[in-house]
RHD domain-containing protein
Amino acid sequence: MSLSKPALRLVAEPQQFYRSRYASEMCRNGTVLNRFIITGSNSAQFKYPTVEILKEWYNQGLYICVILVTVPTEEAPIQCIHPHPIDTDEVNVVKNEYRNSLFFPITEEDCVNGFKSFRIIRKKLVQYELKNYGPLHIVHSNDNDIQRIDDPSDVRKLSKVYQLEKSQLLFSLVQTDPNGRLIVLSATSVYSNIMTATKDRVTNNNVIIRCSPQKGHWIGGDDILMVIPISDRKTPCEIYFEYPSLQRQEPVSFRFVDSKTITFTTPPCLIEVNENHKIEVPIVVRQNNQEVARVNFCYEPSTYNCRCNNDSIFNFIDESNTSELSSSSSTFCDVDDDLAEYM
């Protein structure tokens, strides 16, 4: 079988904000409640993260590997396997708990439909589990990451350095060798958007901050739309990209699209391209000498296709003018999460 396969294409991304849950929260009166990762808005109305499947992949013994991974930061620029475990209730799925990965077989139905959706359960480790987890494993490697904190049992510091409230799903095509071993084709890998855990449900009393797109080219030049919680657009406002490790701020010029939506162009990243090919940089908005908004932006090499199409940008503007309650529930709230899926 040829090792040459095209890169996977995500047709439905996971929801960007969700409420994190411990395993104990997924059991009610002795009944297990499967809280699946669901999608944000998508034109095909897929409920779960979905990738495109080619018809010629039928009967080739192929799988899709799904791994939960960390998001690179300045303090931890190497992408690692996320310690919070993922699982599924689907049958015939090969599970590797040590690598926190799930191998979903590509079926005839998937090839006929042209897509495959993934019902994935994500659980949050409690402190003592995280304390005893050990070093994080580097993605697509047999090596562990270097020790980045003085005390490996310091859960708070570990969570801060790796920003464990953030994660991504990594999808890769997998084939079997003559001995039946699963071989991950890393050249086919694709990362989902960044998912951010919230401790509690976001209500219409909370501030709504949105940014689209949330990733772009390392050389800059991407047009950004951002909804910010300012009370008076006539009051001077400043926006900059913040680099704590460099002790620098890169200001940007902006203009208002409507009363709460601004647009600006990303400047080139001030940090040299790292071997992991991506880095998160905070975008900060200040007004009256006070910080009113902060959101992370992910820089990726210019070879990546990161740009957002015009339709999604215009949809973003339209959504920003909806009622606060509607905007809050559609952007931040995992609706199925609280309705619960009883399986």
About this structure: DSSP finds six helices and 24 strands in the chain. The domain at 210-332 is CATH 2.60.40.10 (Immunoglobulin-like).
